[in-house]
Amino acid sequence: GAAVHIENCGKTFPDGTQALAPASLDIVSGETLVLLGPSGCGKTTMLRIIAGLETPDAGGRVLFDRTDMTAVPIEQRHVGMVFQSYALFPNMTVAENIGYGLKIRGVDKAARAARVAEMVALTNIGGLENRRIDQLSGGQRQRVALARAVAVRPRVLLLDEPLTALDASLRDRLRSELNSLLRSLGITAIYVTHDQAEAMELGDRIVVMRKGAIAQIGTPREIYFAPQNRFVAEFVGAANIVEGPVSGGRLTLPGGWLALNDAADNAAAVAMIRPETIGIVAEADAFLRGMVESVAFIGDRQRLVVTGAANKPLTVDAPNTINVRAGERVGLSVTPQAVRVLPKE
Ligand code: ADP
Ligand code: MG
Question: How far does the centroid of ligand 2 lie from the alpha carbon of residue 262, in Å?
């Protein structure tokens, strides 16, 4: 796949809506880059600029392998696209849909049949080749859309919320199939979603977007464990946001204190703690204490709400083996590296 370089691409629509503030982004050849953010934050606009369906504002450029594509029309960019709605040809069979892009590129019948067979195997739709699109389930349609998009061996594969319309269990299954497929193809892919679990599983790197701007770029681990701001911390995964004064490397909270790594003194610091990084210990052994307000058994873990420890109730994901009850006082243990001080907003 191509390396994609986005330079200063912003977009203000004629009605004055600024969908994207000018942003730059590099996508490495073969990686899956996920654009993650809430509805309306500019993900689709960014994808459409890369595809050539939208022109960036003056000064913006899109390059594929260092070739300026900004003025190149979509059909000459060799991108493959998959959308939330399938956009398949209803009057054609599955095989004809998958082979369509090859046919218009003049690939001969035998080569086309071979590529279609390869794509059918890759997307697990064997046996459906001669069905019409209206005889397929949503999941099958999305597999066909994917097969059609990758059949032409695009330089860049663009996917806009391709799993959003599917029900939850199917979405999970297709997500992991898609993950294997993207890895085995080694294609450069840009994947748009508002779903953080999808972003985590599929992304080599994630671009978190907010209100038309990039809030953070990083690997799933960086985004999860080292969010640079409160928006990213709360959008990706569950986060306890606590506030209190920091002095001498300690964050003081109503129920005690937490040790921090390299934290400057600050009269009103804001910090993030992931629920699964908080340990439940004997009250006498802890520097931070609170009361268990509720316990919910979730199967693989229990989710506790602990009051009195911080300025607001803490969510704690504890192993399902420990025995705690609502109303009990507990100690909380949190390692310094699990406490992430965030900039004030
Ligand atoms: P996302 O895909 O993250 O949900 P979009 O890129 O579709 O967001 O939209 C970003 C913003 O730009 C939204 O406020 C949307 O309403 C606006 N927008 C998108 N397309 C147009 C358009 N053609 N004209 C005016 N505003 C638009
Ligand atoms: Mg969108």
Answer: 39
CA 171 from chain centre, in angstroms, equals: 14
CB of 99 sitting under 6 A from ligand 1: no
- This prediction has a pTM of 0.93
Please write the tens of the pLDDT for every residue from 45-74.
999 999 999 999 999 999 999 999 999 999
Task: List own/partner pairs for 131-134 with CB under 8 A and 24 or more apart.
Answer: 131/93, 131/94, 132/90, 132/91, 132/92, 132/93, 132/94, 133/86, 133/88, 133/89, 133/90, 133/92, 133/94, 133/97, 134/90
Structural contact between residues 174 and 138, judged by C-beta atoms closer than 8 angstroms = no
For residues 147 and 33, give the distance between their C-alpha atoms in angstroms, rounded to a whole number: 20
Q: How many CB atoms lie within 10 A of CB 79?
A: 25
**Quick check: CB of 203 below 6 Å from ligand 1?**
no
What value of ipTM does the predicted structure carry?
0.99
d(CA 134, CA 145): 13
What is the pLDDT, as a whole number, of residue 123?
93
Taking residue 1's Cβ as centre, other Cβ atoms within 10 Å add up to: 21
- Where is 166: in which H helix or E strand? none
Strand partners, 279: 333
- How many Å apart are CA 52 and CA 81, to the nearest integer? 11
The half-sphere exposure of 204 on its side-chain side, counting CA atoms within 13 A, is 16
Mutate to test the pocket of ligand 1, among 13, 193, 208, 210 (most ligand atoms within 8 A of CB): 13
CA-proximal residue: ligand 1, atom 11 (nearest): 19
Ligand 1 in reach of 19 Cβ (< 6 A): yes
Separation of CA 121 and ligand 2 centre (Å): 30
- From residue 19, alpha-carbon distances to 101, 130, 342 in Å are 31, 42, 27
